[in-house]
């Protein structure tokens, strides 16, 4: 129960700014309350002989780690995703919307995300370690029009803990890459390649994007939308 209550606050704590002594004495004894990967990463950091290296920025997501943003940044720039470096990400990712924080209503998504420029959508599939989402190089709106793009893409991490499990589906460049009407949340592709419906059920069927391993119908535990800002 305590781990569940603390989960929303964990991303706000600057663990890498805590001294090694304080971390080992005051935080590490409560490691069962922390995500395993976070606890292990911090231990590795404190064991480094030279900790004058640049500290990783605080991750605003509760779904993915900051390292995933490095991979997403390389996807935006259409570069090799097997190479990633969190110290040289050319974008800032600003959290605009989180369904568990802001509510799961379509109207709230539009209120927070419309007219905010390019965005990344990140969703965690319920009862799974799979993370899916998409990149919209335009802004969201409710005008009901379709937008063509060669730069938008869908992605899937079959297992969020394994970066190599990422599968990318870029837009085929047809006129139906992006759409966001008033009755939908994020919507990629005329064939509903990835769509958040009003009833909270997500659908996926490859048409305007190359095929990924996103399930055809699924629910999510949570989803987030980040504004992509060039540094």
Average pLDDT rating: 87
Strand content: 15-25%
Strand order of the largest sheet: 1-12-2-3-5-6
**Distance between the amino and carboxyl termini:** 39 Å
Cα-atom radius of gyration: 18 Å
- Write down the overall geometry: globular
Question: Count of DSSP E strands?
Answer: 12
- Structure annotation, total helices: 6
Low-confidence stretches: none
SS class: alpha+beta
The biggest beta sheet reads: 6 strands, antiparallel
Number of domains: 2
Characterise this structure.
- The mean pLDDT is 87.
- The radius of gyration is 18 Å and the shape is globular.
- The relative contact order is 0.15.
- The chain is 20% helix and 24% strand.
- The protein has six helices and twelve strands.
- The chain has two domains: 1-47, no CATH class; 66-230, no CATH class.
- The protein starts with a helix and ends with a strand.
- It has helices spanning 2-6, 20-27, 36-46, 66-76, 99-102, 106-113; strands at residues 91-98, 119-125, 131-136, 146-147, 153-157, 166-170, 178-179, 187-188, 194-196, 202-203, 217-218, 220-230.
- The longest helix is centred in the N-terminal third of the chain and has 11 residues, at 36-46.
- This is TLDc domain-containing protein.
- Residues 62-229 form the TLDc domain.
